[in-house]
Every structure is written in C-alpha cells, then in structure tokens.
Write a structure and sequence with these properties.
The structure is a single chain. By secondary structure, the protein is of the alpha+beta class. Helix content is 46%, strand content 20%. The protein is built from 6 helices and 9 strands. The protein has a 4-stranded antiparallel beta sheet with strand order 1-2-6-5, with no helix packed on it. Helix 1 runs antiparallel to helix 2 and helix 1 packs parallel to helix 3. The longest helix has 37 residues. The model has no long low-confidence stretch (mean pLDDT 95).
Length: 262
C-alpha cells in the first residue's frame, strides 16, 4: 500500500520474486494507492512508481530466495515498512498503474517464448551431437529409431512453437498501425505462443536428458541444467493453467482471434 504523506508516499507491504534486487539501485514498483474496498475492480487503484532501492534506508528489507536454477540472477522477497519515496517518482497518473503494466504483458509473453525456444534448441543440439558421437555395439546410438523419434518429435514441436511466436510478435507489431488487430487477438496469440514454446522446450529438454542416458544426469553435458531452467517459462510470469483459462475465456466464449490472411 502506498499512502500519500505530503510530497512523499509511504510504502508498506511485500513483493516476491523480484529479480536483481541484491544489486539494483532502482525498482519499478506497482502499489495500491486506493484501498480495495473503494474501487470497483481489484485492478483499479494501483499506481506505478520508479523508486530508489536504498538498502541503507529504514523500512526496506531484502531476503534472497534460493532457487532451483537461474543462478546468474538473484531473486528476492522485498519487504517495505513505511518506506518513504518522493511523490515525483510516480509514473503517469495515480490509479493508472495497472493499465500501464498491461502494455508490456503481451510483449513479455513473446520474450518468454523466445527464452523457452532457445533452451529447447540448445538441449536438442547437444542431444543430437551426443547421439552421433556415442557408439554402442559398433554404431552411433543416433541411428536407432528409439533415439531418433523422440528427438525428431521434439524438434517439430519447437518449430511449430517458433512459428506461433513469430506470428504473435508480428501481430503485436502490426497492431500499432492496424486498428483491425484487437488487443484480445494479440493476447490470445502471445499467450498461445508462450504456452506452446514452454511446453515444447520442456519436452525437448527432458528428451535430451534421456538421450544421454546416465550421462544426462551428469553436469558435464549441461542438459540437466537446461531441464532445470526450462521450468521458468512454464511457470512465469503466468502458469500454463492460467493461460488455458485465458484462452478458454477469450476464444471459446468470445470471437477475438485474428485470422491472418497472409
């Protein structure tokens, strides 16, 4: 909650999964400036701030989260207790913060789809190289269909997800000039791309581990690391179940999908 106090706001509350807070000096903060009982919808009454993250100031505490992967970037819980910020750190108008954040959500879906695709292709590349080089009973294991087919199917899934991601990005860009491309259509495309890419990446990473046999469990070949990392685009910033809820609402119950004629 952000409470106005003269030419400052006092911030109290908690944020979780805040990246790079251990090293950051600035933070984009979405905080409630109007009490929940005074608004019609929970998304109203939220404001966006660009604040100093002064770890020596009173009212600010960080707690680092130990993670399964993603160890190059710290993740944190951030606790505010009457942490004071200048009123001129407000971005836009008070109460319009959620609307501002919405502008970046579809682009973020495309970003996460790209991350997932990169993980999937990297995992398959290592699996294919290992399958060509690992010789058992006088021939490379990659000549066996039991190795080939799972990797081939994973590759095709990645290719399909890549096309979905390109389509979503193209719609997002086109919407700036083409009013016929609705925000609902963009949301469907971007969420679909994120879902498909994350699932394709998970399959590719899991099959890359299995193609390596016992060595897939060893850090030496990196595929175990890719499998750990690929959970992030499946979970964040929105779970696959929430994406299916969204698609079900926007596509099944409403006609919002933009069918590209090209």
């Amino acid at each position: 909650m952000a409470t106005r106090d003269g030419d400052h706001y006092k911030i109290s509350g908690q944020k979780i999964w805040i990246s790079s807070a251990q090293v950051a000096t600035k933070m984009i903060l979405l905080a409630r400036t109007t009490a929940l009982e005074d608004v019609k919808k929970p998304s109203e009454g939220l404001s966006l701030f660009y604040i100093d993250l002064d770890k020596s100031a009173p009212g600010l505490e960080l707690k680092r989260i130990a993670k399964m992967g993603g160890r190059s970037v710290d993740a944190n819980e951030v606790f505010f207790d009457n942490y004071r910020i200048p009123a001129d750190t407000l971005i836009g108008n008070e109460g319009q913060g959620f609307k501002i954040v919405l502008h970046g959500m579809n682009a973020e879906r495309c970003l996460l789809a790209g991350e997932a695709l990169g993980l999937g292709y990297a995992a398959l590349r290592r699996a294919a190289n290992y399958a060509r080089e690992r010789v058992v009973f006088g021939r490379p294991i990659g000549q066996n269909q039991g190795i080939q087919h799972p990797l081939a199917a994973a590759y095709m899934n990645l290719e399909a997800a890549k096309l979905a991601t390109y389509h979503a990005a193209r719609l997002y860009d086109r919407s700036k000039e083409d009013e016929s491309v609705t925000q609902h259509a963009i949301g469907v495309a971007c969420n679909s791309a994120k879902y498909l890419a994350a699932e394709a990446a998970f399959t590719a990473c899991e099959r890359a581990v299995m193609a390596h046999g016992g060595m897939g469990y060893a850090q030496e070949y990196h595929v175990e690391r890719y499998l750990r990392e690929c959970f992030v685009p499946r979970i964040a910033p929105v779970s696959k179940e929430m994406i299916m809820n969204f698609i079900g609402e926007k596509y099944v119950t409403k006609t919002t999908v933009h069918f590209d004629k090209e």
